Structures are given as C-alpha cells and as structure tokens.
Amino acid sequence: MKPLRLVFMGTPAYAVPTLDALCASGHSIAAVYTQPPRAAERGRKVRPTPVAVRAEAAGFPVRTPPSLKREEAQTAFAALGADLAVTVAYGLILPPAVLAAPRLGCINAHASLLPRWRGAAPIQRAIMAGDTETGVTIMRMDEGLDTGPILAAEAVPIGPETTGGALHDMLAALSARLVVDAIDALAAGTLAETPQPSGRRDLRG
C-alpha cells in the first residue's frame, strides 16, 4: 500500500486524537488547517486552537484561513497536491473547489450515526434526545451538510450515567481509529461506499 499525502482539517480537542493517529499511520501530512486563533472567554489573550498547538508541536505547517471561499485560499489548498483531505470538527464550510482538489476527495469523521444528528453538536444532541446509542460515521464529503456516502460507522452505547465529557472522549478515540482504517482501505482500493438515506427525520430527532 502506497502512503497517501494528506491534508488534515480540524479545530477543537475532539480532533486531536485523529491528528495523533494520522501522525503514526505511515501516511504523510502536507499541512494542517484549523480555525484562526480567537480570544478566550472573558477577554483573555488570543490562543491557538488545540489542533494548532498539537500540529505545531509535531512540526506540521499550520494554516488558519478565516474562510475557504476566496480564490487565493482555494489555490493555496490545491497547490498542496494532496491525495486526500481529512476533516474532523473543522468548523468551516468546504466549497466545491476545495472538495474537488484532492485526488481522492475529502472525508469527514462525524460524531453520530448518520443520517441522525447531522450538523453541529451531535454529541450533545444525542444525549439531550435520550438516545441509547450513538457512534462515529466516516463519510465522503459532498456539498450537502453531512449528506455524503458512508464509508464506515461504528456504534457505542449511551448509558444512563454516561456524561457528555465521557462520550466526547470515547467518540474522539473511535474517530481516530475509524479514520485511519478508512484511509488504509481507501489507499488499498477496498473501501465501499453506501449512500445515506434521504429525508430530514434525523434533523428533528
């Protein structure tokens, strides 16, 4: 299996285990994209994101564009010559030009069993809805909101004593494992895709 040239795109602590797993995977990371530094609560100093901190410590080039809609940002992204982009809780929309730039497209690790809980805050929404299970879905990204074909998924139970923090950490670790497995299968040409069901029932819980 030939190693892939990756771009990683993530922002919060949830995405850090996946970045760590990719560092150890044998694939190369051309650059790490994350959201720009922002002021901490109550007017404290501007701080880089958790992903930026970890990427800089590992020696990866870090890019923090406020948007990917500008032509110059899209040109810079395409110039990386990536085989694949991997996103985990990045928080910015990837326009069509960015989605199309990597040779093998873009994949995303989403913290729910799609099509349930598309969009933001899927962990909190699952707990608030009283779901008895959730999980992680690896999907190929398209122009919709978490609507692309499913590449892999794995469920985890939500017990009556499960906290949001515990579930966050469990799903972050699961995302890391599933992303690496999916990339390896994609590189080997053995990864199957399953279209998501249509409809919006998932958005209403």
TrEMBL record:
Pfam families: Formyl_trans_N. Residues 5-183 form the Formyl transferase N-terminal domain. It is an enzyme of class 2 (transferase). SUPFAM superfamilies: Formyltransferase. Its EC number is 2.1.2.9. GO terms for molecular function: methionyl-tRNA formyltransferase activity. It comes from the Eukaryota. GO terms for cellular component: cytosol. This is methionyl-tRNA formyltransferase. It comes from Geodia barretti.
